[in-house]
Request: fold
Amino acid sequence: FGGTGMNLLNPALTARAFAFFAYPTWMSGDKVWINTTSADGGQLVDGYSGATALGDLATTVGQGMGNPATETVMAQFGPEGTYSLMNAFLGLIPGSIGETSAALILLGGLFLIFKGVGSWRIMLSFFIGGFVMAAIFSAFAVNEFMGLNPLHQLMLGGFMFGMVFMATDPVSASQTATGKLIYGFLAGFFGIMIRVFNPAYPEGIMLAILFMNVMAPLIDHYVVEANVKRRAKRLANA
Reply:
């Protein structure tokens, strides 16, 4: 695209998207390798293949709300379950490397904001957009996946990681202040939408951010155009 700083899309997500669509059987699935080291340091086995929270949630699609078949799954998302909100926030759940601990991701986000690398506007609007979409799903839920607590929904999968480290790419994101708010909100909104509507691969953050990367220049164009028209109108009325 012309060298460093000229990329239209987030480079890391573009590479991941290529790998995902080129090698789908290797890149997709709802299982991850889980370490089984006991608390006292003893090693039980090297590891085992276990389901992720979103993978388990995807099994409830098509079952209907309150279906007995889903009760065992949803019990894992209760206060004492493996995928409880607190466990998801602290990172005590299975998941891809780097995405499981929302608490540590937020600390990383604060560091990026402090250093002036990451935009707080994008992070905040991304979170709000995802929360709004999750709340809409929760209000009109037809299955347990849609009905999950909105805040809990945001703590799972790659939402927080994408919000802090991917959507804030200073080159491929929107450049205007208002554009960053629009860009972030829509990325979070579409991320949860794609996740819930696509149970075959219950995650949508990668695709949502790449889509908004494409739309970012258009967003900035209309934001600048609106500002120019507003100033011209103000000068005409002066």
User: Anything to note?
Assistant: Residues 11-237 form one domain. The chain has twelve helices and two strands. The CA atoms of residues 34 and 208 lie 28 Å apart.
